[in-house]
Write a structure and sequence with these properties.
With 386 residues, the chain is mainly alpha-helical. 72% of the residues lie in helices and 0% in strands. The chain is built from 11 helices and no strands. The N and C termini lie far apart (44 Å).
Amino acid sequence: MPVPSSSAHPSRIPKTTWLKLGWAWLVVIAFTVYGGTWLAQPLTPVAAMLCFAVLFFTIVAASFGVVHEADLLAHKLGEPYGTLILTLSIVSIEVILIASMLLGPGEFPTIGRDSIFAVMMIILNLVMGLCLVVGGLKHGEQEYNAQGANAYLTMIVLLTGTALVLPNYLSGAGEFTTLQAWTIAAITAGLYAVFLGLQMGREKRLFIQPPAGQMAVAAGSATPAPNEPATESGDNTSIWRSSALLLGMIIPIVLLAHHLAIVIDYGVVTAGAPIAVSGVLIAIIVFTPESLTAIKAARSNEMQRSVNLCLGAFVSTVGLTVPAVLVIGLVTGKQVVMGISMLETVLLGLTVLLGMLSFNSQRTSVMQGAMHLALFAVYGFLLFNP
C-alpha cells in the first residue's frame, strides 16, 4: 500500500489539517464564551438544532483529523501498532462522550451499555459486513490471520458476557453492587491490559497478515507480508508532529463533549425517542471515520487491517468503556445499569455466533458480508419496533 502523499513532504502539514484544527478550536472558544447563553434553559428547538449541527460537524471533523494522523503513524510504525493507535484514539473519544452524558444534567443510567451495544452492532455487523462485501466484490475471497480473529472474538465473548449479560442474573437487576462493580472494572481493565501487552509483544504475529495461502504466521516470525505497510525508521520528527496533531484534534472533542451531551439529552426527551438512540448517536459520531478507514482497507485488499480495526475496535470499546463507566458511577454516585434486555441478548448471541462462523476459515466471502448486513438491518428495525 503506498504511503500517503503527505508523507512525501514530511515538513508540510496539509491545509485541510490546519482547517480542521483551526475550526475545532474556534468552536471550542465560541462555546466556552457563549455556550452557557446558547444552551441556557429553557432550550428552544431552533437553538438545539443549530448547536447540534455545529457540534456534530466539529466533532466528526476532528475525529477525521484524528484518523488521518493515526493513519500516518500506522505507516510509520507498522502493524499492529498503527491500528492500535487509531483504535485507542477513537475509543478514548467514545469514553469521553459517554462520561459527558453520565455527568450531564440528564439521567442516562443505561448510556454505557447502550453505547457498547450500538458499537457492537454497527462495527461487527454493518461495517464488517460492508468490508466483506466491498473487498469480496473487488478482490474475490480475501485472506486474514485466523488466529488473531479468533483471539478478538474470544475476548468479545468474555467481555460482553461479563459486562452486559451477567448483571441480569445478579441481585441488582441489571446493576452491579459496589463491590461487584469495582471487581468487574478491575478484571476487565486488567484483562484488556494483558491482551494489549501480548498484542504488541510476544503475540504480535497473531495480528499481522499471514503469507499467501496460510491462516497464521508461524511462531518466531513476525515479518509483515508484502501488502502490509512496513515500518519506516529515521523519521522521529514526523512521528512527534503527527502525535501532537492527534492530541490537538482530541482535546477539542473533550472540551465540546459536555455541550453535545446537553443537546442530545434535550433531543431525545423532546422527540420521545428510545433512550438507546443516544448510544447509537455516540457510536455514529465516534466510529464513522474509523469505519470508513476499515472499508477503504478492505477495498485495498488489506483485509487483515479491516479485521484489526473492526474486531479490535470493539474489544477496546468494552475493555475501556466498561471500567470507565463503572468507576464514574461509583465515584459520582450516578446510577449505572449495564444489563441488556432479552431482545438485545439474542442479538448479541447472534452477532457473536455469526462472527465466529464468518472467521473460522481461511478466506472471507461476500455471502458472509451479506449475512452481517442482514443482521444489522434487523437491529435497526427492532430499535424502533421492539
